[in-house]
């Protein structure tokens, strides 16, 4: 009987990554524009807010195209 080798940690991390939700921060929100302005509020969020997970109730996953 052949036994499969233990899964390397890099594979475990990869599998966890592809199954994970994106972090709910401004940088992954569809409203956050390339110039750092939020199109929903027409304003630039402060750096602490932009990096805070779950800081905005209107966060919407960015369209990947």
Kindly describe this structure.
With 65 residues, the protein is mainly α. The chain is 22% helix and 0% strand. It has helices spanning 9-18, 47-50. It is elongated. The termini are far apart. The mean pLDDT is 93.
Can you summarize the main beta sheet? none
Q: Poorly predicted ranges (pLDDT <50, ≥5 residues)?
A: none
The best one-word shape is elongated
What's the pLDDT, averaged over the residues? 93
Strand content: under 5%
Structural class based on helices, strands and sheet pairing: mainly alpha
| Relative helix content | 10-25%
Q: Give the total of beta strands.
A: 0
Alpha-carbon Rg, integer? 18 Å
Order of helix and strand elements from N to C terminus: HH
> Gap between N and C termini, in Å?
47 Å
Describe the structure using short key phrases.
single chain; 65 residues; mainly alpha; 2 helices; elongated
């Amino acid at each position: 009987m052949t036994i499969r080798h233990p899964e390397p940690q890099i594979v475990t991390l990869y599998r966890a990554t592809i199954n994970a939700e994106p972090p709910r921060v401004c940088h992954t929100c569809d409203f956050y524009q390339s110039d750092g302005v939020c199109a929903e509020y027409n304003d630039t969020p402060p750096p602490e807010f932009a990096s805070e997970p779950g800081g905005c109730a209107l966060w919407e996953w960015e369209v990947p195209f």
